Amino acid sequence: MLTAVSAVVGFLGSIIPTILKFYQQREDRKHELAVMDKQLEVQKVLGAQRLEETNINADVSESMALYKAAEPTITGVKWVDATLEAINSLMRPTVVYLYFFSYIVIKYATYLIIIQAGNTEWTQAVLQLWTEFDKAMFGGIMGFLFGNRSIDKWFNRKK
Question: Which of 12, 14, 42, 135 has a 20 to 30 Å separation from 92 between CA atoms?
Fold first, then answer.
């Protein structure tokens, strides 16, 4: 009987290391898969960061190219350079003045149509002309023109 027990124990003793080795390999493979999953997640995050960085660099490059293209060309001839500078500096105000002139002409024509159409007094006609759109447009323009200056002064004062 002792021989049979020692044979079984000997047999089990030789199988147990193999079973433990198999279990250890299985755990090692699980760990390797978990590590690979984490590495894949990190690669995805790094790829997204690189893509975002590339997009930001492209935006910066585009802005720099636009600013460079907007720089006046210096010819070296004083009167030509002065003329080009005057044209560049007067372009925006001229467009704004033309827009407001056309706006006033259209509002005046609408005022005349309202007055000629019926028994409307001039005060009522003016109130009809000043719509929500006009209020929003006026507020936006005033905010842009004077708010920009205030913000510039505020930030320059903080420095």
Answer: 135
